[in-house]
Automatic annotation (TrEMBL):
Belongs to the ATP phosphoribosyltransferase family. Short subfamily. It comes from Seleniivibrio woodruffii. Its main location: cytoplasm. It catalyses: 1-(5-phospho-beta-D-ribosyl)-ATP + diphosphate = 5-phospho-alpha-D-ribose 1-diphosphate + ATP. Signal peptide: none annotated. Catalyzes the condensation of ATP and 5-phosphoribose 1-diphosphate to form N'-(5'-phosphoribosyl)-ATP (PR-ATP). Has a crucial role in the pathway because the rate of histidine biosynthesis seems to be controlled primarily by regulation of HisG enzymatic activity. Its EC number is 2.4.2.17. This is ATP phosphoribosyltransferase. Keywords: Amino-acid biosynthesis, ATP-binding, Cytoplasm, Glycosyltransferase, Histidine biosynthesis, Nucleotide-binding, Transferase. One of its GO terms (biological process) is L-histidine biosynthetic process.
Length: 210
């Protein structure tokens, strides 16, 4: 276990990372020019503020934090719930809003039944959601082009993130129900929260004042 005072931050590549760095710049946690989003580099070290950023896949942030490779991280609530990672959830950062929705073909029967198949990147959340309605479903895990699955008969419904709904509309699908609303969360490793208590506490206080 590391005991140095550098704070290691796992950020999901894309808009959430950009918004987080912008917030950290505004609050003086890091300096301008440390993180280069046009670079192929995966780590960026701010030696003045003793903080290191690592760029990882969205779905992997909680894993890096859980196992101590990162002290803190930023991840969507949807992914945090899906991973069920044993980490601290410190703050709701308020940005990165999205909705996780059930969707189906526009002209199909949208009633739920026990023998239906649901395609999704979120099998655990999906099973739990439908189980809460007393419906037990089969899930198929897909990583991309999820809208295609009901069109070709692979699934009855999909569960996916929806923003404007235009992608669904263009592919002849409609929203059936919103499962949950999600925003970015600041999470932390439970062991490092004790080892680096003072530094992590300082960052939380500064971010919370945003």
């Amino acid at each position: 276990m590391r005991t140095d005072d550098c704070i290691n931050v796992a950020l999901p590549k894309g808009r959430l990372a950009e918004d987080t760095v912008e917030l950290f710049l505004k609050k003086g946690i890091t300096r301008e020019g440390v993180v280069d989003f046009n670079s192929r580099m995966l780590t960026f070290h701010d030696e003045v503020n003793n903080i290191k950023f690592m760029m990882v896949r969205n779905m992997d942030v909680s894993t890096y934090v859980k196992h101590g490779a990162a002290d803190i991280g930023v991840v969507g609530k949807d992914i945090l719930l899906e991973s069920a990672a044993d980490v601290y959830e410190y703050l709701d950062l308020g940005f990165g809003y999205c909705r996780l929705c059930v969707a189906g073909l526009k002209d199909s029967d949208h009633s739920y039944r026990h023998d239906m198949v649901v395609a999704t990147k979120y099998p655990s959340l999906t099973k739990n959601f439908f189980a809460g309605k007393g419906v037990f479903v089969e899930t198929i895990k897909l990583y991309g082009s999820i809208e295609l699955s009901p069109i070709v008969g692979l699934s009855d419904f999909i569960v996916d993130l929806v923003s404007t709904g235009q992608t669904l509309k263009k592919n002849g699908l409609v929203e059936v129900e919103t499962m949950l609303e999600s925003t970015a969360r600041l999470i932390g490793n439970k062991s490092m929260a004790k080892v680096k208590y003072q530094r992590i506490r300082e960052i939380l206080e500064v971010v919370e004042s945003a």
